[in-house]
Design a protein that fits this description.
It is found in: Periplasm. By secondary structure, the protein is α+β, with helices and mostly antiparallel strands. The protein contains eight helices and five strands. It is globular and about 55 Å long.
Length: 207
């Protein structure tokens, strides 16, 4: 009986072990020359204006859903894409942060992506951003108050600081980019399935 139990436990471990044996530095992931974060986390650098990010949303959501307990998933909106002014891109960073404050991050993110990539409404004016949030339960007075508040202004500045830091390090050259524990960049083009991606995330979290 004991042998059967041991065999069953071994079989349960095989999928992860099989993947882990294939994960190699400078292949599936790159080590960034920074200190590892003190808390377990996965950061997605993304832009609402990025078509690839829009298509990757189901993948990002699955990563967040499948994270081990206690691991934080952070969406870091960038403002460096060409073709749209940095301020216009930052307006959507503010919108996301305000939505997050009010527990509407997932819903508002979905609506912003939908507006830009399905409805063809690019949200280049702040009044349009404010209207979208109002339609989704965050009234204009709340929006005006939040966007002028120091916590939201500081949070948006932190998004830019983090994108600039990883750009300077050469780790952030486009979006979407996923970084685990601030130190391990996932080379997403080497990954063949969601299962493999989830296992790579777990592998990197354990390093």
């Amino acid at each position: 009986m004991l042998k059967k139990i041991k065999l069953s436990l071994l079989l349960l471990c095989l999928p992860f072990a099989a993947f882990a044996a294939q994960f190699e530095v400078d292949n599936q992931y790159t080590v960034i020359d920074v200190e590892k974060s003190s808390t377990a986390q996965v950061t997605e650098f993304f832009s609402f204006y990025c078509g690839h990010c829009f298509k990757f949303e189901p993948v990002a959501k699955a990563i967040e859903k499948n994270l081990p307990d206690g691991v934080v998933f952070i969406k870091n909106h960038v403002n460096f894409l060409g073709g749209v002014s940095p301020q216009t891109q930052s307006n959507l960073s503010f919108a996301y942060l305000i939505a997050k404050k009010h527990g509407q991050a997932h819903n508002i993110a979905e609506q912003i992506f939908k507006s830009i990539h399905i409805q063809g409404a690019p949200l280049t004016e702040i009044k349009d951003v404010k209207k979208l949030l109002e339609i989704n339960g965050i009234d204009s007075n709340t929006f005006d108050s939040d966007i002028a508040s120091m916590p939201i202004i500081s949070a948006e500045r932190a998004l830019q600081d983090k994108q600039n830091k990883y750009s300077a390090l050469g780790a952030l050259t486009g979006v979407p980019t996923f970084i685990v524990n601030d130190k391990y960049k996932i080379n997403i083009n080497t990954i063949k399935s969601q299962t493999e991606l989830d296992e790579l995330v777990k592998f990197l979290l354990a390093l």
